[in-house]
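Minutes, project check-in
Item: structure for the 496-residue chain
Input as provided by the requester:
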Amino acid sequence: MTTLARATDTLTRDALTVLQPGFAGTTAPDWLLRRLGEGLASVALFGRNVTSPEQVAALTAQLRAEREDVLVAIDEEGGDVTRLEVRTGSSFPGNHALGAVDDVGLTRAVAAELGRRLAAAGVDFNWAPSADVNSNPDNPVIGVRAFGADTDLVARHTAAYVTGMQSAGVATCTKHFPGHGDTGIDSHHAMPRIDVDADVLAERDLVPFRAAVAAGTRAVMSAHILVPALDPDRPATLSRRILTDLLRGELGYDGLVVTDGIEMKAIAGTYGIERGTVMAIAAGADAICVGGGLSDEGTVRRLSDALVEAVRAGELPEERLADAAERVRALARWTAANRPGGAAEETIDGDVGLRAARRALRVTVAGDFTPLTEPPYVAALTPVANIAVGDETPWGVAAELLRLLPGTETGSFNGADAGSEALAAAGSRRVVAVVRDEHRHPWMAAALDVLLAARPDTIVVEMGVPRAQPRGALHVATHGAARVCGRAAAEAIAGV
């Protein structure tokens, strides 16, 4: 069946309205513009769609010329997960750095400035913040994306982030409900499972979401995780017990519910994207995020057809689909009403991200360290990036040290021989070893052993979660790998 959307076809328009698809390219393809005319109400931007803020502004203007009230969504957490600055690294530290500072006023200011920049580019819906409590230190997908492992800290900073960003007219989407922090599996690849009792969930994982709801978050994103204490049969995204009974009933939430990427393997590999989409809407989701991996018109057609067919077959109540579509339109009305005008320029605080990154540094000195005056060799011990972060965005301290100490050289190393290879490449230069989550990567810890045994004056920069014991002549924990975190670390190393 092929969807033939007409102005009078309410069912088909509702099916298109609940989709939030991505696309390829830096301008809107014809098929996307046509679908906007047929009922599509949201468009998602990913790193592949971005070259500069100015280009994004032109792209969003192109979309709104076709449909003025279109929601333009993006996954812009700041820190390690950036789309607006995917080619350069973020001007804002991520959640873990803000949690390390623990100044809710600063978190609010960072979110407000990030929101202002999104709004200036025509983006009005941000799939952030992460409200996950990173209770599992080996979590492969949350980590520095969380404000921390303390429930109350995460709750107060989640609320501050929501308040700050929405003050700029950009709707927040608090994620990943009911909490992705206690997982050891990335749901991009498989289905994570959290085996704790309901009391632990209520006292740990749900608290930040309650804070977000109280702060007025306009959207909540579901997690593709199985939580048997809440629903032994279905993951949160597909669970009526979790999305309707818990989120809407117990937590009293009445805004938009968005799924995490429906093509992620936790759903696609278990249920398929068509069935998963229908089940998610039936369970209480209002919008389907898709496009991180599948970004073509065929995907939009498949999902809208699946919804229409499910209604016609009696598998999905038409009223549930209509309610979901109306919640999408309600959010579009909110963003339109809160779109900032020229007066918003008065709130610009362009340096707030760098100030936050500097405050987030934790510096441990061993012995009589003196700042570097000669260009070092930066050995980046580089793990495989998780899909949420991606491998397009540069990270580290090499670029910033090159600016401060011209002649700085760098290389990337991975695996069992990383330490010896880095030593050989460095030669007689002072070594700056840059790591990301040393505690999760035995090969990385072994490489540091080799470097420090041969060169005790090695400087270590940890740009992930700083769980490992500080070591090196100077140890700098940045609590994230944003560009401004690298700059703050470089300043500490060079003493400026």
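Outcome recorded: The longest helix spans residues 318-337.
No further action items on this chain.
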